[in-house]
Design brief:
The protein has 522 residues and is α/β, with parallel strands linked by helices. The protein has four domains: 118 residues, no CATH class; 171 residues, Ribonuclease H-like superfamily/Ribonuclease H (Nucleotidyltransferase, domain 5, 2-Layer Sandwich); 69 residues, no CATH class; 123 residues, no CATH class. Helix content is 45%, strand content 15%. The chain is built from 20 helices and 15 strands. Strands 1, 2, 3, 4, 7 and 8 form a six-stranded mixed sheet that branches. α5 crosses α7, α6 packs across α7 and α14 runs parallel beside α16. It is elongated and about 130 Å long.
């Protein structure tokens, strides 16, 4: 039996089987297609033919020579090795491995691949599909969408390596960009990938849509988004506005979801991995010949051609000379910074996650450390050599929090809340570096004197604009009696003769005449 006779017999058997399953066993068209491993359209076409029409159709197939016949061996080999390969991916592989591959429609490749599947009993493995709701058409240059993906590739030794990729798509033209790396993305990597995307697009859209990914956000509360410091600093330097989708809402960015799936199922599926640089070069070639060169099923346009008209509506792209990725220095979990072989302390609370970065500058043998927004964090003298730990012990406690607690302890001792708030605010204004000491004096007075006397002393300070804890203390000591069984806050001695002598020193006290004369002069 010749090959042509064998194919004819196979078609007749399939035709008879389809009609029997449909008319005698009353199976659905989709069930028959899955059972036989063929497309449901083929089942419908065979059911619509009577025997005479089918004979004419079969004879026409025997007389036709397929333009893809020279590539049969390659397709059979790939389908035998990777049975889950789609016709679209096979089309890309043919263009990749055969530079002179003829220009044919995707439908031609699909029909030929399905024909080989039937002849060699290589049905396509079923892959679960995810559906998305459509979004309305958007004007050119307005929106882009961003997402991440990951996939495991085979290496030459048979092992597998996981790669991670960043993807961005312009909504109007469906023009795509992808970039790979061999480790999970951080805020810094994502910022760098944005720059590569905008350079690739030759412009910047007005809005970019994101998931609520930890790469971009570290907290969210019913619509209030707190971006990571690196990403927040970056968007301030760029003219686009970020838009974050609600959680569990993939339909809001279905275009980029489909791109991620397209990259996995067409470019990455069954691809071998050599190096990261080669993978990114292969991805660039794939975008040129397939990702941005094939007619899009929804828009019925070639993304590259649509991008050529959209490009003029994008905002200008001006390369940055110093990106966040280059200038930021990582903050350690211990609120320290490693710089040129030495470790420098930072105030408690500086570290806010793995992506916390600071800006560093050397001035006159002094290391100046600022936040990414330019706010001063610390200054340290740069030591000689390497391996030194430079620590400012004032960094090891959150003074602002503890001072606020001390202020609250003072406030609860007074009924005149507005008055005590004014007094404390004036203290903070006049003695910013000695606020803790000022409040400590007031708390000591509040434990020694009755509440009635402390209230009068506060009123007098407010009336005469005496905004000092020492003035408050002097007024009390001049006219009020100390409470009985008072436990004055003592100073713990360190035990040396010098410190014991210092403890026993009593400061001079002002008499009431000083304040009476002061009031008379007002």
């Amino acid at each position: 039996m010749t090959e042509k006779e064998f194919k004819t017999l196979t078609r007749y058997i399939m035709y008879d089987t389809i009609h029997r399953l449909r008319h005698e066993e009353h199976k659905s068209i989709q069930w028959i297609a899955d059972y036989l491993g063929i497309n449901f359209r083929t089942v419908k076409k065979y059911l619509e033919m009577d025997l005479k029409e089918f004979e004419q159709y079969s004879n026409s197939l025997n007389e036709r020579d397929c333009i893809l016949e020279p590539f049969r061996g390659f397709i059979v080999e790939r389908l035998g090795q990777f049975q889950d390969t789609s016709a679209a991916q096979m089309h890309d592989w043919l263009k990749e491995h055969y530079p002179t591959f003829p220009r044919v429609t995707p439908k031609t490749v699909y029909n030929f691949v399905m024909k080989i599947r039937q002849e060699h009993n290589l049905p396509k493995l079923k892959v679960s599909k995810r559906e998305y709701g459509p979004l309305p058409d958007t004007p050119p240059g307005k929106y882009a969408q961003v997402d991440f993906g990951e996939h495991k590739l085979r290496k030459g030794d048979g092992s597998r390596v996981k790669v991670y990729f960043f993807a961005m798509i312009l909504e109007y033209s469906r023009y795509k960009f992808i970039w790979f790396q061999d480790k999970p993305f951080t805020s810094e990597n994502a910022v760098y990938a944005h720059e590569l995307s905008f350079r690739f697009f030759h412009g910047i859209p007005k809005f970019v849509i994101y998931d609520q990914d930890s790469v971009f956000l570290y907290d969210e509360n019913i619509g209030d988004y707190l971006m990571t410091e690196v990403f927040n600093s970056y968007i301030k330097s760029r003219p686009f506005k970020p838009v974050f989708c609600r959680k569990a809402d993939p339909e809001s960015k279905g275009k980029i979801e489909n791109v991620v799936k397209y990259v996995k199922q067409n470019f990455l599926l069954n691809r071998s991995y050599s190096t990261l640089d080669n993978l990114n070069k292969e991805a660039e070639s794939w975008l040129s010949r397939t990702g941005n060169a094939m007619v899009h099923d929804t828009t019925c346009k070639v993304p590259y051609q649509a991008w050529c008209s959209e490009c003029k509506d994008l905002q200008p792209y001006i390369p940055v000379t110093s990106t966040t990725l280059e200038s930021g220095h990582k903050v350690q979990r211990t609120n320290t910074l490693r710089y040129k072989g030495n470790t420098y302390s930072l105030p408690f609370g500086t570290y806010r996650g793995e992506e916390t970065r600071v800006l560093v500058e050397e001035k006159n043998n002094t290391l100046v450390i600022n936040t990414m927004d330019g706010e001063l964090l610390a200054k340290h003298s740069i030591p000689a050599g390497r391996g030194n730990k430079v620590i400012n012990y004032n960094h090891q406690r959150d003074k602002s929090t503890s001072i606020q607690k001390l202020c609250d302890q003072v406030k609860v001792q007074f009924t005149n809340q507005s008055g005590v708030e004014i007094f404390l605010s004036k203290l903070k204004e006049r003695y910013p570096r000695y606020m803790r000491d000022q409040i400590s004096v007031m708390l000591n007075c509040l434990t020694k004197y009755a509440q009635e006397d402390t209230a009068k002393a506060l009123d007098m300070c407010l009336e005469k604009s005496l905004f000092s804890a020492n003035d408050f203390k002097s007024i009390l000591s001049s006219g009020a009696e100390i409470k009985e069984n008072n436990n004055e806050v003592g100073i713990k001695s360190l035990g040396t003769p010098e410190t014991k002598l210092m403890v026993n020193i009593k400061p001079n006290k002002s008499t009431i005449d000083v304040y009476q004369n002061l009031f008379k002069n007002k």
